[in-house]
Amino acid sequence: MPAPIRLRELIRTIRTARTQAEEREMIQKECAAIRSSFREEDNTYRCRNVAKLLYMHMLGYPAHFGQLECLKLIASQKFTDKRIGYLGAMLLLDERQDVHLLMTNCIKNDLNHSTQYVQGLALCTLGCMGSSEMCRDLAGEVEKLLKTSNSYLRKKAALCAVHVIRKVPELMEMFLPATKNLLSEKNHGVLHTSVVLLTEMCERSPDMLSHFRKVLILVPQLVRILKNLIMSGYSPEHDVSGISDPFLQVRILRLLRILGRSDDDSSEAMNDILAQVATNTETSKNVGNAILYETVLTIMDIKSESGLRVLAINILGRFLLNNDKNIRYVALTSLLKTVQTDHNAVQRHRSTIVDCLKDLDVSIKRRAMELSFALVNGNNIRGMMKELLYFLDSCDPEFKADCASGVFLAAEKYAPSKRWHIDTIMRVLTTAGSYVRDDSVPNLIQLITNSVEMHAYTVQRLYKALLDDISQQPLVQVASWCIGEYGDLLVSGQCEEEEPIQVTEDEVLDVLEGLLVSNLSAPVTRGYSLTAIMKLSTRFSSVNRIKKVVSIYGSSIDVELQQRAVEYNALFKKYDHMRPALLERMPIMEKTATNGPSEIVQTNGETDSTVLDTKHPPTITQPPSQGNDLLDLLGGNDVVPVIQTSLPTKPPSAGGELLDLLGDLSLTGAPPPAPASVPSVPMSQPPFLLDGLSSQPLFNDIGTGIPPMTAYNKNGLKIEFMFERSNPNPNIAVITIHASNSTEADMTDFVFQAAVPKTFQLQLLSPSSNVVPALNQGNVTQVIRVLNPQKQQLRMRIKLTYTYKGSPVQDLAEVNNFPPQSWQ
Question: How far is Cα 442 from Cα 599, in angstroms, rounded to an integer?
Fold first, then answer.
């Protein structure tokens, strides 16, 4: 059989191939020849054939059939054969192969070979692909070589020991005696691998870490080595771009970081050397930047001095000016991690960080955006928001959602004024409205509602924004809501913050009707617009035009829009006397949560969502704060939550008694408990939302025989209970409270709360007012329903809060003397 071609010739032949198919053909032909040679047990050219197989393996072609030939080469006595055999074993074998079990004896023999280079081959192979079984069997030989005086073998044995520890952590203590003298070695290769071994042991075992800190006291030794590297002159063997052995310096800094973490003594011992490295390292080359970066990480991770931390942040600030994008990205990421602990030091580099927002690299822009938001505080909010809003205008679409969310949170937390807050949110909705979070619309509505003095300014700004662009749906929804609420202010031109515009009622209605028919409007937006038009029927004089618009959409193919229109038509036809009260302005709302979906809480502890006027009916809810108050009120866990009717708190007005009935309405399909005086009507398919309402009294006065009682009389405030019984369900006691004030000043912000044990159920309806007039000139009334199915004696605790002459007052009382007729 002719001699096979050499590896060099094979490489040259393969490189002449013009197509992939031609290359595959060459490889297949050569693999066939190699297989034939293996079958003939040709020992002469086995080494050459395995070398060619390894090259084919590097090209991505299968070479597994050469695994056994690698073992034969390892068993050979020739060094050239062993070298190719061990190389083939490292490339073609792994822990999942059973063949490597046959190698254990060969490696053990070679570890005890008289030639250091053969020993080095065995150490490299064991450190590369040794299984846990091989590591257990050969750990003793590795530990012996780790103690040898031969630097060539010690460095390879140290790396092999790292692999053994990773595979079999319980063998770590075997190598502990050998680590005592490793750092006294002069050879940099041994020092480097020794530091790697010590780092691995410290990371894997807290006991080892404590041993190296307290017993071996590694920190002074590492500091000495690092100081010698910094102060040593030029050494051609270790010099890289004018820096002595930067690889060893980086490894030492990483080990110092582990040793100094959460340890005062170790941190104190390394503060001086870290300062020297930070100030003496050359930054013109990338090698120096790598060392400085590791130094910064070490300073930030240990208990370092404040001056040293400022120095580290200044180094990162210089990195931001580097032309290399990778260095700038690393600096931004590191500053983002440290901004919470060293906020003021990072603030000094704010202008440089903001400049990174203009970088072309998307990764740098994202990190700069995140860091910019982290730097925002009450002192720089105006300047930072100006830069971030400019970034929002010009950034790519993938940044807009995160940027808009960040602007919202920062503005909510640090807004210098309500006008600035509203302007900022409107600017975001104008430029990136399609990317904002779902809760942005109700949050902005809540902000506008609470800014009473800004209503005219806000509705004028939003009206102008609608004239310019109706493509940003969240902006259109907020604008529609505000025009419906404050359209009279828009038409009257009462804006004081800027020059008022002259707008007629017809022009406002034209804009809202345009939103209803626009192809750009989402179904939700059309619902906002129709509701806004309906609200304007109580604020504008163009009622006939509004009736016509509403009636048109009574046959809309959009079910949501159709339902609204049908209900609004019913208001016009059947309940026109209730329309002004139903469509009056929303009261001021208090927000209980700042992030995520939030509830909006009204006075007297009642809840109401901003979508009451736009989309959904009122719901029976209870804010978490009130539940906690009631738990505190009873002082235990035997408490039932109070069911609050979700009605806006308002002064007495026409139709107020009928409005109170809305607390019993539900659009979810399940009819709520009806008051005793309301005629029983089928609720499965009501023709209209408001059917079933009447002007009859809320409860039958069948409990006139129950004597009233005084539940509270203190500081001029008197609370009386009047009792009635609900006709359909005799287990329900209806208590009407009458709050009177005999002092000379009004009691404002009056809130009455009550709680009962678990065996009862309690529901508080809306109070008639939150102001108790002075000198007994009027009463505040509120209805309480108590379900007592077990006919137990009624017990109740009440909580009263109010403001008297500008001072808040709060008091608790327990009511146990209910007349027996009220609960029997």
Answer: 10
In this structure, what token pair is assigned to residue 366?
């994202």
* Distance (Å, whole) CA 6 – CA 534: 91
Q: What does the pLDDT look like over 56-111, one tens digit per residue?
A: 999 999 988 888 888 889 988 999 999 999 999 999 887 666 666 778 888 999 99
Dist. CA 108–CA 588, nearest whole Å: 83
pLDDT band at 38 (very low <50, low <70, confident <90, very high): confident
> pLDDT tens across 777-820, in order?
888 999 898 888 888 888 899 999 999 988 899 999 998 888 88
Tokens representing residue 549 in the block? 């618009």
CA–CA distance, 503 with 501 (Å, rounded to integer): 6
Q: For residues 192 and 163, is the Cβ–Cβ distance under 8 A?
A: no
Helix then strand then coil, % of the chain, to nearest 5: 60, 10, 35
Task: Report the alpha-carbon distance of residue 178 to residue 187 in Å, rounded.
Answer: 16
pLDDT in tens, 146-183: 999 999 999 999 999 999 999 999 999 999 888 888 88
On the question of pLDDT at 594 being above 50, the answer is no
Nearest to 152 by CA among 180, 126, 179, 115: 115
Q: Among candidates 174, 205, 179, which has minimal Cα distance to 191?
A: 179
Nearest Cα to Cα of residue 218 among 190, 177, 182: 182
Reported for 204-212, long-range contacts at CB under 8 A and 24+ positions apart, including other chains, are 204/165, 204/166, 204/169, 204/172, 205/169, 205/172, 208/172, 208/176, 209/258, 209/259, 211/176, 212/259
Torsion of CA 410, 414, 418, 419, to 10 degrees: -70
Largest CA distance in the chain: 124
Cβ burial of 453 (10 Å; 0-12, 13-18, 19+) is exposed
C-alpha closest to that of 315 among 331, 301, 337, 338? 331
Please say whether the beta carbons of 441 and 482 come within 8 A.
no
Q: How far apart are CA 533 and CA 550, in angstroms?
A: 8
Distance CA 121, CA 561 (A): 80
- Backbone dihedral angles phi then psi of residue 595, each to the nearest 5 degrees: -125, 145
* 345 CB-near residues (< 8 Å, 6+ apart): 309, 310, 313, 314
Strands 761-764 and 643-644: parallel
Give the distance from CA 393 to its chain's centroid: 24
**DSSP labels for 113-138?**
-SSHHHHHHHHHHHHHH--HHHHHHH
Two tokens at 822? 């009220």
Q: How far apart are CA 743 and CA 771, in angstroms?
A: 13
Residues with Cβ within 8 Å of residue 510, at least 6 apart in sequence = none
Q: List the alpha helices (DSSP H) in 16-150.
A: 20-39, 46-59, 67-75, 79-92, 103-111, 116-129, 132-146
Q: Give dist(CA 782, CA 51) in Å, integer.
A: 95
DSSP 8-state symbol, 675: P
According to DSSP, the residues that pair with 106 across neighbouring strands are none
Alpha carbon distance 260, 631 (integer Å): 48
Say if residues 715 and 771 touch (Cβ distance below 8 Å): no
Structure tokens at 548: 């016509």
